[in-house]
Amino acid sequence: MRPTSNWGPQDWSDYPEATWNYEKIDDVTADDDATYLYTTATGKKMGWGNSLVYRDSTDVDSVLMFVRAKTLADVTRKLLIGRGVQSAPGTYQMCGSGVDTVTLTSSYADYTVKWLTDPNSQNEWVWGVLNDPNQSWFCISYHPNDTVLQDNFDDNSLDTDKWKDRAKGTGSAVSEEEQRLELHLGSSGLCGSGLLSKSKYNRLSTYSITYSYQTNWDQESGVEHGYKGFFVVPGDTSGVFETTYGCATEGIWFGFGHGCDYNNDGIRIMADDDGPSWECGWDDMIDWIHADILEIDTWYNVRAHFNGNTGLCSMIVEMAGDDSVITGTVSSADLTNLGDSIRFYFHVSSYNNGTKEDRYDNFRSLDFSEDRITQSYAVVWSSKSKKFLQRIVDRGDLVPIVDKGTLRREVDGSP
Fold first, then answer.
1. Which end of the chain has fewer CB within 10 Å, C or N?
2. CA geometry: angle at 343 spanning 325 and 357, to 5°?
3. Taking the mean position of all CA atoms in its chain, how far away is CA 96?
4. DSSP 8-class letter at 128
5. Is the distance from CB of 191 to CB of 225 less than 8 angstroms?
6. 135-181 pLDDT per residue, tens
7. CA separation (Å) from 397 to 2, 52, 328, 388?
8. Which domains does the chain possess?
9. Residue of 22, 25, 20 lying closest to 36 (CA atoms)
10. Predicted model pTM
C-alpha cells in the first residue's frame, strides 16, 4: 500500500518542490536523495494516505509501516513512526499505542513498525480503516537537543573542557569576568586574543550561531585597524593561525570592521583557503556593509548561519531599527579547504597601539541540518484458508508474491 494522497499535516518540505508531498515518497524502488521530504525542526508532522477502495472488509492479520530515512545532523535525531488520527477537523495526533521511536543515522536506513491490531481502536484490523481519510500513516520529527556548543560565560571562569585560550603578544588575555567573555589587547600593539573550541564538528552540517557582542574599539577613528569577529576554521588547525597575532588565516570570517580598511565600523563575511599572512590577506568577499553601524560599549545580538554542504552563509546584527543583514555563498574551494570538520573561534587583533577589548556573551551553536524521508509504504498481511499470504497493493493492482520460490497471485481467495 503506497502513498496516493496527502492525509494529515504536511509540515515537512519536499525536494524537488512539487504540488503533492506524497509523490516524493511513493517510489517502488527508493531513489534516496533524488526525491525526498525534509525538515530542520523538531515536532514537525507528516502524514500520507492511500485513497483506493478494497474489496475485503475483514481477514487482516497484521500491518507493517515502512519508512526509509536519514539525518544530515551531527547531533542525535529521532523519528516517531505510527498511525495518526484526526482528533478535530484539521488536527491530527499520533495514536497513543504502537508508536516506534527510531534514531536516525547519517546514511539512509529502513525502519518499520508492525501492528497486530489497530493502534487507534485497539480492535482487529479491517480493510476500511486502512484507507480512512480520518487516519493516516504518520511521522513526527523529534530532536532531543540540537545544541552542539553552548556557553553563557556566567561563572567567571573559562570552561577548559569547551575552549582553548589563544592570547598572543604582551598584555593580551582571554578572561571570563563580569559574567561575560572578554578578549583583551595590550597597549604595545602587534598582539591578538582568541578563544578556540576544543571539539571539532561535522563540516557538512548546517549551523545557526547566536551570541551577543560589544566592543570599546572605534574603528571609525581613522587610526585603528585589525581583525575581529567570529570564525569558522578547519578542524585540523595545523598552519591555520598566524603566529604573531593568533588570527586565523583560513576559513570563514563573520567580521566586524576590516583588517586593512580604516574608517569602517561595518560588518562582512569573508573566506580564504590558502593560508595568507595576517595583513590584508583574506581573498574572497562574500558580502559586506561598509557603514558605521556599530557603536562602542553597546550590546548587539548577532546571528550567523553556515551551511557546510552548500556554502550558504549569512550574518545578522539586530539593530534598534532595521536589522543589518549580509548573505552569500562560499566557494567550493573554500569549503573543501575546511576539511571534514570545523572549529569555532572568537578573535580580536590589532596592528596599532592602544588597549582594546571585545566582549561576548550567551554563545550558542545549533545544528539545523535536515532530516529526510525518501520512501514510505505499508504492507498488509491477510490470512485465508488458514494460510498467510503476503498481499502488496500498488495503486490498486495486485502484484505477484513469492511463496516458497513460486510466483503466485491471489484471485477471489484462491491461488
1. C
2. 65
3. 28
4. H
5. no
6. 999 999 999 999 999 999 999 999 999 999 998 887 889 999 999 99
7. 11, 10, 49, 19
8. 5-145+370-408 (2.60.120), 147-367 (2.60.120.200)
9. 25
10. 0.81
